Every structure is written in structure tokens, then in C-alpha cells.
């Protein structure tokens, strides 16, 4: 809940930061791993999972369908059981819950009702709901977004479905994740502009194949064969997108930050940070212990396409506002449909501080200007809060209206931020 009456004062850095950081597990991997474990033949153990609002919502959603999840300690075990309703699923503001769970809930028996936060009702959902109707899933009404209810019959026919996933890669992943449990599998065909955040689709395909699911991937087409989903134990990678503000802290203050356990290879879009920060003038080094970013005396503006890593845009925009030259962030028109309209929010809040930030058709043009402190609104968006924290390091007096929204994917962001600053 936003608390404008008691905003958080973002700490100002009086010296270059120097820290080693352990980042919690990846939200994207955690929620996919939990959902696939629920569809598997045997129990699975998950280690290093993220425990935050989005993952708690996923676990609660699956538990409401009868899945056994004992999330007391790390690791925890997921025990697959026959899916059944009736159930009420709270999606919160989690795209992975509102889009990934309905194709699974269609395999349950009984009515499954979905709803979420007020902003969640505005997020794009019509493609996934239309796709489910096309493959035979029954709904209680003709809703095109939250709230809606699925009338589960215990089975889904599956087959060929064409969707436009140009507003979210999650539409593709949602169908692929459940497809092996459909009678005829699923044949997903994308017809539209390029899919944003496409590494997340690659992540989905890789995780399915790791569980023995046959996936035939072609340009704009993915075919999942019907069959079992093997139970495997999972070690969750750190959430590389949640590492963004910490590594940005090194770049913006001329300090040095190491994020531990950075994977040498990964499907996480957050791995783009290595190239982005280097382009902006920081030194980047990856070794077996982690990724180290060392900043220098100034940041360079960038002209960059973030279509495949849109979630990094708010933190990159914060760095761009503190750079010495103009930046153009392109390919991220789809961010208008995220937790908030991130392009409007960034242009508004950076402008409030004195930066010249203008929206373009598919992104932002940021011309750095001297900035002063003031209230930075987050619009209940965790990435906006992270961007504000980064700017607060070099702009005194920034007040963040709802820093607790970071708990969506980082349960103790404030504590980790203060620890980084010593």
C-alpha cells in the first residue's frame, strides 16, 4: 500500500560504494520451477528460491488447487496432487500468476476464480484467455481480463492456437508450461510484432526440456508434445534483474560492487547488464565468484534497444539521468502495460526532479539536467522504487513514496541497500 505520509528517504552516498552482495533467487525461475513441479509425476525439491510477494502468490495459487507445498525452510518440496476446485486465486500484481496459473487451473475440476490488485485488472490478458477458449477451456463468463472464472473439467484438449504475444512473452510461456498435460499437447503460433523479453520464452523451453518434455521451437512457433513432466530438483539462480540497482550503485558513485554467484551462462534477461554498464563507462568483470562492476568518474549516455530486457529500463533510465550525454532507450513500448505505465511514470518522475525525460513511440529520450530532491512516486511498481534508490545516491533529498513495493520480488531490499552503504 502506498504511504505518501511516511515516505522513505533514499540514502545519499557520501563516498563510492564498496560491497559484496548476495541477491535472492530469480522470481522468473522460481515461479516456473514451482508450477512445473506441481505438474510433475513425483515430488520436487527447490533450493535457493525467491520468497517474496510474487512467489508467495504463486505458491498460494497452486496450494488452493490442491498442490502440496511445504515452504517452511530452504529447500522446500512441492508435492503434485490431483488438481481440484473450487478455489479463489489472488494474482496480486504478478504477471506470472495471472497468466501462468489459468492454463494449469483448466486441468482442475470445479470453478476457479481469479482476481488481483486494481492495477492487475488493467494489464493485458485477452490473448491468453482467448487462447484457452480456443482450445476448449470453459469460462463462467466472457471476461477479457481480471476478474474471471474457469470452469475446470479435469482435462484440456489442446492443439493449435495462434496468439499475438507482442505485449507480453508470458502469453507464450503460459501455454507452453501446461501444454504437456493437454491431451494433444500445444502448438503455439505467434502472429504479431516481435515478442518482448524473448529470453523468458527461452527460459521456459529450457526448463521444460530439463524435465523431459519434448519442445520443438521454430521462429514464432513452439510445439509441446503431450507426455509426462519429470520431477527434478532445482537450484535457483540469483535474480539478475534485482541485481541491477546494486550494480548501478557502483557505476553511479564510482565505486565497486560484486554480486555473488552470477551464472556464467543463463537465460535471464538481466544478464544484459554486463554489456549495458560497460557501454555506459563502467568496468565489468565476471569470475567464478561473481560479477564485479567498478564505476569511474562519469557515466556515458547510451542509445540502446532494451526490447529483450525491458525490466531493466527503470534502473537504466536512472543511470541515464545522471550521465553526461543524452540517452535513448528503445524497443520498450510494451512497458506501458506492466505494473504501471513505466514510460509515463519514468518521464513524469524524472521530470519532477529536473531531468529532461521525454517519451518516444517506443521508449524514452533522456537529456540529463541538474536534479534536485523531492518526492518520487513508485505507482506500486518495484522497479520504479529501485530506480529512485539509485538516483538517491547522487541526488540528495529524494523521498520514495512506497519503497515497500520492492517486496514484490526482493523481500528486504531496504535492508540490503543500507548494508551495501555500510
Task: List its salient traits.
single chain, 422 residues, globular, alpha/beta, 23 strands, 22% strand
What's the short story on this structure?
With 422 residues, this protein is of the alpha/beta class.
What is this structure's SSE topology?
Blueprint: E1 8-9, E2 18-21, H1 27-39, E3 44-47, H2 53-64, E4 68-70, E5 76-79, E6 87-90, H3 95-105, E7 109-115, H4 126-134, E8 138-139, E9 148-153, E10 159-163, H5 170-179, E11 186-190, H6 199-210, E12 215-218, E13 221-224, E14 234-235, H7 244-253, E15 256-260, H8 273-279, E16 283-287, E17 290-294, E18 303-305, H9 313-321, E19 327-330, H10 342-353, E20 356-359, E21 364-367, E22 374-376, H11 382-392, E23 398-400, H12 413-420
Parallel strand pairs: 2-15, 3-14, 6-7, 10-11, 18-19, 22-23
Antiparallel strand pairs: 1-23, 3-5, 4-5, 7-9, 8-9, 11-13, 12-13, 15-17, 16-17, 19-21, 20-21
Distance from N terminus to C terminus (CA atoms, Å) equals 28 Å
Structural class designation:
alpha/beta
Low-confidence stretches: none
Helix content: 25-40%
Gross morphology is globular
Beta-strand content estimate: 15-25%
Count of strand segments: 23
The value of Rg in angstroms is: 21 Å
Number of continuous helical runs: 12
Lateral strand order in the biggest sheet: 2-15-17-16
The major β-sheet equals: 4 strands, mixed
